[in-house]
């Protein structure tokens, strides 16, 4: 099975805060696991992973179809941008 995937990187001094916020938000409805270095959110349409890196946060989404991938980019991106409004951060998804 071919997986479609994309990732986005955002420079921030507080990647652990965003991992925690996103994972806690989605944990009310779907399976989630996380710590201060990484997170995994299991959507019906695919998986999102979050990783703290030296200069910021790496977000990655994977899905079985390009349509679902676009949907995941939109869902994860809109929630991230809502939580990151103070820093005015936005995501630029790139295919992997």
UniProtKB/TrEMBL annotation:
InterPro entries: UCP028291. The lineage of its organism: Bacteria, Pseudomonadati, Pseudomonadota, Gammaproteobacteria, Pseudomonadales. It comes from the Bacteria. This is DUF2218 domain-containing protein.
């Amino acid at each position: 099975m071919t997986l479609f995937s994309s990732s986005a990187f955002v420079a921030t001094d507080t990647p652990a805060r965003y991992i925690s916020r996103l994972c806690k938000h989605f944990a009310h409805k779907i399976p989630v696991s996380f710590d201060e270095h990484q997170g995994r959110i299991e959507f019906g349409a695919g998986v999102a992973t979050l990783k703290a890196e030296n200069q910021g946060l790496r977000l990655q989404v994977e899905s079985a179809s390009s349509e679902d991938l676009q949907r995941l980019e939109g869902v994860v991106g809109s929630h991230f941008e809502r939580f990151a409004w103070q820093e005015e951060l936005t995501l630029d998804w790139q295919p992997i």
